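Troubleshooting log. The previous structure file for this entry was overwritten by mistake, so regenerating from the original sequence record. Sequence copied from the archived sheet and checked twice against the printout by T.R.
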Amino acid sequence: MLFLAIMYLSKKYSKMMKRIITITLSFIWVLGAFATDDVWGPTGHRATGKIAEKHLTKKAKRAIDELLEGESLAFVSTYADEIKSDKNYRKFYPWHYVNMPLDGNYETAAKNPKGDLVTGIQHCIKVLKDKNASVDDKRFYLKMLVHLIGDLHQPMHIGQKEDKGGNTIQVQWHGRGSNLHRVWDENLIKKWDMSYVELADNAKHLSKHQIKALQAGSVLDWVKDTHSLTKKVYKSAKVGEKLGYRYSYVYFPIVRQQLQKGGLRLAKLLNDIFD
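Regenerated output below.
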């Protein structure tokens, strides 16, 4: 009788443990899905902020230091992602991306009535230039702008609506499940294993002429520039494809290039605003 009782309890709790494990794994999968929302990941955003700091005019740097109360552009660069957990800031979520067809452009693409990456950037600039705007508002929208310019330079944040910017394109990254959006958000940068300071300090050396060339144009010109890379990223992998060192070798230089462009263009905007 004792033996039968033990066997019964073993089967009963075995089923319970299986159920707990299933629920836990499902929860982890959900967290992983939400993790893809953080463009470039913290390291990429901070690298963009750090690069921008190196190209600020003295006047702009003083104004920004005062407004941010000593916090660096690198430090505040992740703020727009951090506030996603607060429902009071939910209205800003659409600002992190813009959707358009691969053969289209921003001007002709269907617009999100709740706003998008372009309208978000434009609003930030408007507030920062407004002499009547409060210090608190300027501080908030400066933090948002630093992040959004980083977002603008991540190719999959100017992706297709039907696949959520590559979020539904499942691939393997060094033997683990991922998706094309996440590969460009974080996987490529994390695998390189450099701090944001190392990434910024090792940005490609450019002449003054080259810097001015990259900083030229409007926000819409920069969207078009990034979108040209978006098309290449969509062609870079097929659903279920196993990506690894070869993919990093080919595409990580583009990531570094985009981080540098983002930093240089952010500095250009801030110098125009505060200088």
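Confidence is low (pLDDT under 50) at residues 1-10, 12-18, 20-38. Archived copy saved in two places this time.
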